[in-house]
């Protein structure tokens, strides 16, 4: 898949460049929680590339779901502070998204300076993919760069409609993600291991169907695995899982059971609290009051052995209730197994809950691709339409 990109020798002095990034990160006590491999940190690389070539950079992003209203808790001012730290300059901030005050702020920019606009989702026209809103944004700039893979599955004004208003290009982060994921889809080196966890079966089942013909093994974990165990008629107690996915899981197992590595044992407790005693039990021994909260030791050792021999590994979603440190053993074991294949295989890791975990484990720089998109990565791999990417194709 070929995308329009700016050439390394591009002279952008005096050019106003409108850049869409994905700065949608947690904000705690007014500070953007974004590590060295986080979404903002990686977007800053592309912004700095533009700055070094003399561009006057206007950045836009969303944060949360304010539903077209100005919600102070979703202001992107903390994103401006984080970008300032990363770029080593003051990133200016506009309380407005479009309008006279923004135009004045853009006019005052000098070569190499950066301005961040307020949360684009404060304007209801953003999620309606409004051409009028896109036109107002386009009036601020000479060209547009999309470096936000994580929102490319959204037909929003700052992602799709804007590309019709200005000369438009893919940024380096977007280009890298599309390049690696395209190769995985078209010609994965084998053995190919697909590992999927998390909760939503509706997000993961389409990926399984799409990649199953090429995959040698599909390792299933997290609450997704619980749906598969329920599909097999095994007891799941009071576990949380996507009930709608059980029927699809049954069909997949009927068609290709030999490829699936389902848990043989699981970690259970009466609740996820620190007081509840956890136990590693066979999948047939889950009690009526038990909750499945992690994948068991024997299952993960078997999964790790398959990863050790793989030439391609794609992993999305935690394998347990990983936000609770008591139930993240399976996720960390899988992360280390995939990281150990760094030199011998193509390794792709994604998912909003997965990336922070591998970063805290010190493994974030040991994968071919650490995707910034959770839902976007899944939709791309499932072969679904990606409006933001289609708008940039040559």
Automatic annotation (TrEMBL):
Q: Where does this protein act, in terms of pathway?
A: Carbohydrate degradation; glycolysis; pyruvate from D-glyceraldehyde 3-phosphate: step 2/5
Give a yes or no for keyword Ubl conjugation in this entry.
Answer: no
In the Enzyme Commission scheme, what number(s) does this protein have?
Answer: 2.7.2.3
Q: Which Pfam families match?
A: PGK (PF00162)
Q: Which named protein is this?
A: Phosphoglycerate kinase
Q: Which residues bind ATP?
A: 204, 323, 351-354
Which Gene3D superfamilies does this UniProt record tie to the protein? Answer: Phosphoglycerate kinase, N-terminal domain
Catalysis: reaction(s): (2R)-3-phosphoglycerate + ATP = (2R)-3-phospho-glyceroyl phosphate + ADP
| Any one of the GO BP annotations | glycolytic process
* Amino acids binding substrate: 22-24, 39, 62-65, 121, 154
Per the record, its GO cellular-component terms are: cytosol
**What PANTHER family does the entry give?**
PHOSPHOGLYCERATE KINASE (PTHR11406), PHOSPHOGLYCERATE KINASE 1, CHLOROPLASTIC-RELATED (PTHR11406:SF23)
What is the uppermost EC class here?
transferase
InterPro entries the UniProt entry points to: Phosphoglycerate_kinase, Phosphoglycerate_kinase_CS, Phosphoglycerate_kinase_N, Phosphoglycerate_kinase_sf
Q: Which UniProt keywords apply?
A: ATP-binding, Cytoplasm, Glycolysis, Kinase, Nucleotide-binding, Transferase
| Protein residues bound to (2R)-3-phosphoglycerate | 39, 121, 154
| Localization in the cell | Cytoplasm
Q: Which family does it belong to?
A: Belongs to the phosphoglycerate kinase family.
Q: Which residues form the signal peptide?
A: none
Show the taxonomic lineage. Bacteria, Candidatus Uhriibacteriota
């Amino acid at each position: 898949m070929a995308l329009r990109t700016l050439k390394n020798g591009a002279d952008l002095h005096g050019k106003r460049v409108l850049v869409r990034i994905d700065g949608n990160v947690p904000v705690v006590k007014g500070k953007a929680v974004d590590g060295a491999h986080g979404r903002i940190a990686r977007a800053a690389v592309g912004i700095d590339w533009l700055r070094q070539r003399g561009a006057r950079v206007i950045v836009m992003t969303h944060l949360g779901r304010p539903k077209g209203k100005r919600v102070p808790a979703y202001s992107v001012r903390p994103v401006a502070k984080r970008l300032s730290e990363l770029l080593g300059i003051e990133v200016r901030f506009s309380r407005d998204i479009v309008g006279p005050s923004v135009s004045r702020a853009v006019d005052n920019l000098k070569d190499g300076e950066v301005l961040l606009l307020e949360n684009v989702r404060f304007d209801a026209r953003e999620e309606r993919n409004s051409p009028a809103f896109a036109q107002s944004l386009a009036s601020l700039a000479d060209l547009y760069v999309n470096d936000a893979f994580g929102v490319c599955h959204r037909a929003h004004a700052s992602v799709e409609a804007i590309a019709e208003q200005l000369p438009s290009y893919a940024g380096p982060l977007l280009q890298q993600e599309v390049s690696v994921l395209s190769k995985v889809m078209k010609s994965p080196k084998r053995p190919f291991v697909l590992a999927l966890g998390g909760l939503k079966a509706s997000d993961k089942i389409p990926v399984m169907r799409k990649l199953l013909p090429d995959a040698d093994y599909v390792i299933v974990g997290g609450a997704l695995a619980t749906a598969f165990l329920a599909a097999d008629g095994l007891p799941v107690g009071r576990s949380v899982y996507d009930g709608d996915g059980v029927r699809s899981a049954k069909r997949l197992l009927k068609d290709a059971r030999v490829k699936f590595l389902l848990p043989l044992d699981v970690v259970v407790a009466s609740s996820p609290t620190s007081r509840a005693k956890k136990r590693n039990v066979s999948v047939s021994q889950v009690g009526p009051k038990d909750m499945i909260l992690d994948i068991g030791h024997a299952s993960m050792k078997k999964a790790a052995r398959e990863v050790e021999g793989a030439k391609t590994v794609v992993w999305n979603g935690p394998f347990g209730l990983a936000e609770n440190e008591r139930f993240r053993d399976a996720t960390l074991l899988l992360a280390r197994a995939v990281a150990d294949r760094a030199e011998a295989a193509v390794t792709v890791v994604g998912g909003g809950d997965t990336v922070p975990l591998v970063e805290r484990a010190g493994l974030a720089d040991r994968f071919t691709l650490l995707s910034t998109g959770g839902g976007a990565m899944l939709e791309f791999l499932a072969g679904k339409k990606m409006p933001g990417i289609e708008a940039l194709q040559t």
